[in-house]
Amino acid sequence: MKILVLVEVRHNQIRKASLESLSQACKLSSQVCALIIGHKVKDLANSLSKFKLSKVYLVDNEALANFSNDNYAKALAETIKKASPNLVLAANTIMAKDIMPNVAASLNSAMLTDVVELKVNAGSIEAVKPVYSAKASCTYELTGSLVFLTLRPNVFDLVKSDDSHNNEVENIETTFDKPRSVVVETNVSGNSQIELSEAPIIVSGGRGIKGPENWPMLQELCNALGAALGASRAVVDAGWISHQHQVGQTGKTVSPQLYIACGISGAIQHLAGMSSSKVIVAINKDPDAPIFKHATYGIVGDVFEIVPRLTKEIKAMHENN
Amino acid sequence: MKIAVCVKSVPDTETKIALNANKTNIDTNGVKFITSPYDEFALEEALKIKDANPDTTVTCISLGSNESKEVLRDCLARGASDSVHITVDDGLKLTPLATAKILAKVLGEEKYDLIFCGQQGVGTDNSMIPSMLGSLLNVTSVNMIISFSLLEGSKFSVKREIEGAQETIEGSLPAILSAQKGLNEPRYPSIKGVMAARKKEIKTLDLNTLGISDEINKINDLIKIKAMALPQGKTGGKTIDGDPDNQVKELVSLLRQEAKVL
Predict the structure, then answer these.
(1) Of A293-302, B15-24, B197-206, B218-227, which range is least confident?
(2) pLDDT, mean of residues B167-179
(3) Residues of chain B with CATH 3.40.50.620
(4) Which of A219, B112, B166, B218 is deepest in the core (most CB within 10 A)?
(5) B2-220 is classed in which CATH architecture?
(6) CA distance A240 to chain B (A)
(7) Torsion over CA: B37, B179, A88, A167 (sign)
(8) Does the bond joining B186 to the residue before it have cis omega, within 30 degrees of 0?
């Protein structure tokens, strides 16, 4: 099984979710190649040295300085021609969902996104993914000489190793046309804003926080925990916070290690987006709130009494360590 | 301007999902079907362009069993110019690539300046169709847009949220754009619209008349559903009692000692 892993670069660093894909690939096969696409990304090949790779492919070109679906897809397609893998893996990010289906369609290949379990059988690949926003999960069998999959962030373990491999690097030279659409501006959110889908801890707020003026209370808990801030659909629709914070169906599906739901009742649409979290803490005044049925730890109480105390306790814990 | 919008009929997002007897699909008995929420944003964006430029046509295309007709009727009621229903056999679960190939076959017969889709269909949650269509129709595609504007000289500008950043993307028409929540507020159909929609014809096509039945079957065979399962609810959840101080202390202790997530 030859696996090619599309490695994603953001802010001149390799995404953690891409390292998870590489870890999984190395678990499945001894013939793993990585692909880094971008401009001035040569040095990043070294940061993959803890993985034993058959090759690190680089498509490093000025035409790739700004993301375009057209050119990045071409870079992937050219690499596939060289590497002739049986499986192409990437983290389930927006970039991967732009370019992977693009190339999969041109090569008539099977593809699925957001996979949470993966097994290689003789002649086929078995992949499990949540469907209906995780209200169900489906096991698929994929066949064909080439299969494309994106893996959900935070689900596959990172390989822990102190190894340092001197992986062979190969530049793929190709020419690019002017892309028909291209990124002309990128506004990076502030550092305190951790991306929801990759966050190890999420603190989420719902109607129970009473109004947008109370987000700072949750943000403080986020800061203490190094968590990302989530929200229920009700408060997004009420305009208390932007949609990028929404967890659940029509929002983001997340699987953090720890999910703390503050003043969220647990509508089915919300549960769909977060019930695969490893540990769920629910804080809600209403003892009959559906969220408690899904909680690992439930506190029936007032978020305004619990959350500030929790923030204080976490800060104290960090100071004592 | 010629615009197409791909729309899909999906189970209501409020629906509790149950499985069929052999656990290979959901049980659709008693399930209410709605227009996939993201497709409503896609349609609204197309209708906004039509409002501003009355010579614009908006064609809605839906692939699927009979529920799709209701979705198309709803699109017409909101103001779409015409609609196409591509019927498939009830039992056939189409893979994303098969879906994209069928849509591309129909879309490719006209020259659309813009094709809008929802950023994902509720259900299989794959978000693959817009990019696949881009590849098959040789048109550029941009996913997950939250704003759209037409610029001079058949150009467009869109914004989208990616992980940790917002991007502005510019490009030239024709283009395929997928709509994310936040793009607009979908309108409701007017009574007049609903009445008018009843009289409109829905063009119907099937895979045989399109001449792609064999090709689609072959592609569809690449992905098979082995089994479906419902998530197991958490069992043995703990309720932490006491006054707020003690509740918090116990919670932190459990998160550290028992769950080991802190």
Answers:
(1) B15-24
(2) 98
(3) 2-220
(4) B112
(5) 3-Layer(aba) Sandwich (3.40)
(6) 13
(7) negative
(8) no
- Type of residue found at A17: A
- pLDDT at B31 > cutoff 50: yes
Contact A105 B100 (CB under 8 A): yes
Residues of chain A with pLDDT under 70: 189-193
CA gap A263, B247 in Å, rounded: 16
Q: Which amino acid is at B213?
A: S
Which two three-digit tokens encode residue B156? Answer: 């467009």
If pLDDT is split at 50, 70 and 90, which confidence band does B37 have? very high
Give the three-class secondary structure for B229: strand
Q: Smallest Cβ distance to A139: which of B97, B127, B227?
A: B227
Instruction: Choose, out of A8, A115, A181, the residue to mutate when testing the contact with B (most B CBs < 10 Å).
Output: A181
Chain B residues with CB under 8 Å of A130 CB are 125
Instruction: Report CB contact under 8 Å: A98, B136.
Output: no
For residue A212, cis peptide bond before it (omega within 30 degrees of 0): no
Tokens standing for residue A258? 């720890």
Average pLDDT, chain A: 94
**For position A257, which CATH number holds?**
3.40.50.1220
B126–A114 C-beta distance less than 8 A:
yes
Q: CB B168 to CB A310 under 8 A?
A: no
Q: Which of residues B233 and B75 earns the better pLDDT score?
A: B75
User: Is the per-residue pLDDT at B229 higher than 80?
Assistant: yes
Domain stops at, among A126, A154, A171: A171
Q: Could B231 and A275 be called an inter-chain contact, meaning their C-beta atoms sit closer than 8 Å?
A: yes
Within 8 A of B157 by CB-CB distance, chain A residues are 184
CA atoms within 13 A on the CB side of B90: 5
> What domain count does chain A have?
2
Q: Do the Cβ atoms of A313 and B252 come within 8 Å?
A: yes
Write out residues 66-95 of B within 8 Å (CB-CB) of A.
95
**Residue B30 corresponds to which tokens in the numbers above?**
């008693």
Residue A28 amino acid letter: L
Task: Return d(Cα A57, Cα A70) in angstroms, integer.
Answer: 19
Check if the beta carbon of residue A94 is closer than 8 Å to that of residue B160.
yes
The Cα of B157 is separated from the nearest Cα of chain A by a number of Å equal to 9
A39 φ/ψ angles, rounded to the nearest 5 degrees = -125, 130
